[in-house]
């Protein structure tokens, strides 16, 4: 029997910072001594389109993408996108989502409505669901731009990797002048 | 040894560095672009963008003929442009090792087709390696240079989106320092491909492919992983990783060299397993050759020809074919949701232009770049898009078939980088043969769609050094276009007037828009304007400003849902003023 690989999906809207967050996750898992693979799409989809990054870690990882229906953790940067990618998860997955809505083009144009009951719909399917007010907590930590790091902290709490590796990865990946506020933001999320 | 998490593209760049490469050239194209962007970080390598892939390969060929190891990189469709030199390079062979990296895009995440580049290796009779993770990207790049010199051949290295943009752990090594220094050496019988010389070279090409197949049967690049004898799978690249997920008990012949195939090894493997599968993305490239060897295989009758594979798609095909039991887990499903396609950025200088083309009922022959998004609603202002540079030549062709009244509606739209890639030849044709269409060159000073790479009109090189910049207006005049007008695309009145004048003109003309990409930093950077806001007391809810599809403008319905007002997100607005110009009641200020 092969050892279990942990499957994480980061989903959001192009330009929201999913790529950097997935880099920090990957770095953390490597520092913790795991094999790591990740996959994402650049180019066309970055222009405000729907984006999904896959990060997998374990003793040995084969596929760089998460096999459909085997996602363990969904890390959502935007509500509609979090909901869109639920089919990639298994029924017992953990879901952490930023309480943030970016209207897609058809909603901007008034042709469609942004669904208003997404939080309830996600919670109904996935009891292990955490909605994070990333912007508010990041502002409290000292900079609204650190919202993704608050979420990262919340996700970190749901994975079995020691805190020291998360902090080491942040130290490596975040510019020195923004490090302090990001570490504060990370702890705010990790406390949730 | 030091370990790092690298993308496939970063690892290919690292492999080129370790292999002692001296010269590298490319034209940007997703998913290959980051290779050269990483190569430039190694000061030992002379790396630069070329105007197109043919030129990039020829630059690498020149460096190889001079005795240096040389790298050329491109996306799959780039090989179509570079095919001319590639096929004859196969005959000349190399002096310094030459590797052509091609990044395919199964599923067309960011491409206009999903052609399978393995066919090019067979067609041009050159070996092709296919790595399955980032570490192999680096190792195979190194090996490709050794093979290139050992067998006197260019070597193709094939990646796909999931390899190029996937990351995994790589063990780094030192750069090879023992290569002979480049020097001019005359060797006309090998390097001058006139018929008499080429006839001598061709048999060597055929012999080389046979020798490489024999080498492949004993080289560690092709690997047997024997487990159960019930099912054996031949696969390569990222598909190997998927197969390991879905069929952990199966025996695997993992091919690191997908052309030529190691015939002896395949025969050996097929004799050891009861059911032989070939699982490969896109074309039945391996499958057909294995069948031609008289070996029974299961392949494309189960696995899809179109799109990329994934563990789930492979599992579904195996369940369908009765090779795996049907899954009993009910998948999570969600209702239909508002889609989120990509969009032009807030403040993009192209947006107003496409709005006007739509209003003027233009028939737009489009091209490859960010502006291809002008096709999407609500702009709906692109009618054709084929390949790099085709906007101008298809416009030139279509007007020949049309009555005058319809000719006037034809506008070719092309970006600066695409114009310099292959649009110049097309415009030369249009001017020469006086095809009465209008060409709109959206000059935003950069190759935007792939992530803002420099081009010959940017004034900078890949390394950020100041360079001569092509004067696009003068170039058009030199090609024979008598009417060349430059206009500010943020000024809708002026742009509309120019479009109307030039579209009505019964001869070829060029309009150039002159605002940089709104994501540009540095010298010719985009200047933000005064942020705009909707005055809710004035807004009548006419929705005129929504017609440009700006991501910063949102329709906010009233409580009863029957009325509403526009709202501008101050975090997204760049102050470009296009929406302001559309508001007839001056509610945007």
Describe the overall structure:
- The complex is a heterodimer of chains A (192) and B (589).
- Chain A has a single domain, classed as Pyruvate-ferredoxin Oxidoreductase, domain 3 (3-Layer(aba) Sandwich), CATH 3.40.920.10.
- Chain A is built from eight helices and six strands, in the order βαβββαβααβαααα.
- In chain A, β4, α2 and β5 form a beta-alpha-beta unit.
- Chain A starts with 5 loop residues before the first strand and ends with a helix.
- The model of chain A has no long low-confidence stretch (mean pLDDT 93).
- Chain B is of the alpha/beta class.
- Chain B is 35% helix and 17% strand.
- Chain B is globular and about 80 Å long.
- The termini of chain B are far apart.
- Chains A and B meet through α1, β2, α2, β5 and α3 of A and α7, β8, α10, α13 and β19 of B.
- β2 of chain A pairs antiparallel with β8 of chain B.
Largest interface, with Cβ-Cβ < 8 Å? A-B, 52 and 59 residues
The backbone outline of chain B, from C-alpha atoms, is globular
Strand order of the largest sheet of chain B: 3-2-4-5-7-6-12
| CATH topology term of chain A | Pyruvate-ferredoxin Oxidoreductase, domain 3
What is the CATH superfamily of chain A? Pyruvate-ferredoxin oxidoreductase, PFOR, domain III
Along the chain, the helix and strand elements of chain A come as: EHEEEHEHHEHHHH
Query: Count the strands of chain A?
Result: 6
CATH architecture of chain A, please?
3-Layer(aba) Sandwich
Give me the secondary-structure topology:
The complex is a heterodimer of chains A (192) and B (589).
Chain A: E1 6-13, H1 18-31, E2 35-39, E3 50-58, E4 71-76, H2 79-84, E5 89-98, H3 105-108, H4 118-125, E6 129-132, H5 134-141, H6 147-156, H7 163-173, H8 176-190
Parallel strand pairs in A: 1-4, 4-5, 5-6
Antiparallel strand pairs in A: 1-3, 2-3
Helix pairs in contact in A: 1-7, 5-6, 5-8, 6-8
Chain B: E1 3-7, H1 8-18, E2 23-26, H2 34-39, E3 46-49, H3 53-65, E4 70-75, H4 76-92, E5 98-104, H5 118-124, E6 128-129, H6 134-150, E7 155-160, H7 161-164, E8 166-171, H8 188-191, H9 195-218, E9 223-225, E10 228-236, H10 237-246, E11 250-255, E12 257-259, H11 263-272, E13 275-278, H12 285-292, H13 311-320, H14 351-359, E14 363-365, H15 390-400, H16 404-407, E15 410-415, H17 416-432, E16 438-442, H18 472-479, E17 483-487, H19 492-504, E18 509-513, E19 553-557, E20 564-568, H20 578-582
Parallel strand pairs in B: 2-3, 2-4, 4-5, 5-7, 6-7, 10-11, 10-13, 14-15, 15-16, 16-18, 17-18
Antiparallel strand pairs in B: 1-8, 6-12, 9-11, 19-20
Helix pairs in contact in B: 1-6, 3-4, 9-11, 10-13, 14-19, 15-17
């Amino acid at each position: 029997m092969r050892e279990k690989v942990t499957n994480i999906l980061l989903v959001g809207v192009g330009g929201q910072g999913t790529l950097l967050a997935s880099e920090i996750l990957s770095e953390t898992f490597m520092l913790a001594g795991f094999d790591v693979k990740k996959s994402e799409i650049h180019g066309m989809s970055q222009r405000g389109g729907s984006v999904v990054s896959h990060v997998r870690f374990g003793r040995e990882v084969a596929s760089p993408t998460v096999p459909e229906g085997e996602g363990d953790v969904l890390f959502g940067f935007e509500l509609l996108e979090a909901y869109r990618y639920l089919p990639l998860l298994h029924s017992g997955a953990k879901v952490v989502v930023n309480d943030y809505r970016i209207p897609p083009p058809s909603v901007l144009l008034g042709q469609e409505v942004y669904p208003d009951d997404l939080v309830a719909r996600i919670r109904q399917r996935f009891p292990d669901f955490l909605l994070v007010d990333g912007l508010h907590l990041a502002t409290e930590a000292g900079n609204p731009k650190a919202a993704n790091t608050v979420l990262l902290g919340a996700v970190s709490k749901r994975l079995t990797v020691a805190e020291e590796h998360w902090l080491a990865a942040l130290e490596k990946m975040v510019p020195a002048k923004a490090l302090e506020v990001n570490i504060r933001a990370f702890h705010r999320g990790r406390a949730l | 040894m030091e370990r790092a998490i690298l993308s496939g593209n970063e690892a290919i760049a690292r492999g080129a560095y370790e292999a002692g490469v001296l010269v590298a050239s490319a034209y940007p194209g997703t998913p290959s672009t980051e290779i050269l962007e990483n190569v430039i970080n190694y000061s030992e390598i002379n790396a630069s963008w070329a105007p197109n892939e043919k030129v990039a390969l020829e630059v690498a060929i020149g460096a190889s003929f001079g005795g240096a190891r040389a790298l050329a990189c491109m996306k799959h469709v780039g090989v179509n442009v570079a095919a001319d030199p590639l096929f004859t390079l196969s005959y000349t062979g190399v002096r310094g090792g030459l590797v052509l990296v091609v990044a395919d895009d199964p599923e067309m995440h960011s491409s206009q087709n999903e052609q399978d580049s393995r066919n090019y290796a067979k067609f041009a009779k050159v070996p092709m390696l296919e790595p399955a993770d980032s570490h192999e990207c680096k190792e195979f790049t190194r090996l490709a240079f050794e093979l290139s010199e050992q067998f006197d051949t260019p070597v193709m290295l094939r990646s796909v989106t999931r390899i190029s943009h996937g990351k995994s752990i790589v063990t780094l090594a030192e750069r090879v320092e023992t290569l002979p220094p480049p020097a001019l050496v005359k060797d006309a019988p090998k390097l001058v491909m006139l018929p008499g010389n080429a006839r001598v070279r061709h048999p060597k090409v055929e012999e080389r492919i046979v020798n490489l197949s024999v080498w492949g049967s004993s080289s560690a690049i092709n690997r047997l992983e024997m487990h159960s004898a019930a099912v054996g799978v031949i696969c390569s690249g990222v598909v190997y990783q998927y197969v390991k997920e879905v069929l952990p008990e199966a025996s695997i012949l993992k091919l690191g060299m997908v052309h030529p195939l190691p015939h002896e090894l395949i025969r050996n493997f097929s004799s050891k397993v009861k059911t032989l599968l070939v699982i490969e993305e896109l074309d039945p490239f391996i499958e057909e050759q294995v069948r031609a060897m008289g070996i029974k295989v299961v392949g494309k009758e189960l696995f899809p020809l179109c799109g990329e594979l994934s563990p789930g798609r492979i599992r579904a095909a195996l369940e369908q074919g009765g090779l795996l039991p049907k899954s009993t887990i009910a998948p999570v499903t969600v209702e239909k949701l508002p889609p989120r396609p990509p969009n032009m950025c807030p403040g993009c200088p192209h947006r107003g232009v496409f709005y006007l083309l739509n209003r003027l009922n233009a028939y737009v022959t489009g091209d490859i770049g960010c502006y291809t998004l002008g096709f999407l609603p609500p702009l709906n202002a692109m009618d054709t898009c084929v390949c790099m540079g085709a906007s101008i030549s298809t416009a030139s062709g279509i007007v020949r078939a049309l009555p005058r009244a319809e000719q006037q509606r034809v506008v070719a739209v092309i970006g600066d980088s695409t114009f310099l890639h292959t649009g110049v030849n097309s415009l030369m044709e249009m001017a020469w043969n006086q095809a009465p269409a209008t060409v709109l060159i959206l000059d935003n000073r950069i190759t935007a769609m792939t992530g803002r790479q420099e081009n010959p009109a940017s004034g900078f090189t890949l390394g950020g050094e100041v360079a001569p910049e092509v004067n696009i207006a003068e170039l058009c005049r030199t090609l024979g276009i008598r009417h060349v007008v430059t206009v500010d695309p943020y000024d809708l009145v002026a742009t509309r007037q120019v479009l109307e004048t030039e579209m009505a003109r019964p001869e070829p003309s060029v309009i150039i828009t002159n605002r940089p990409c709104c994501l540009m930093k540095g010298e010719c950077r985009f200047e933000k304007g005064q942020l705009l806001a909707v005055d809710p007391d004035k807004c009548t809810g006419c929705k005129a400003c929504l017609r440009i599809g700006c991501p910063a403008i949102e329709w906010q319905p009233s409580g009863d849902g029957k009325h509403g007002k526009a709202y501008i997100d101050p975090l997204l607005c760049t102050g470009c003023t296009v929406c302001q110009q559309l508001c007839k009641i001056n509610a945007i200020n």
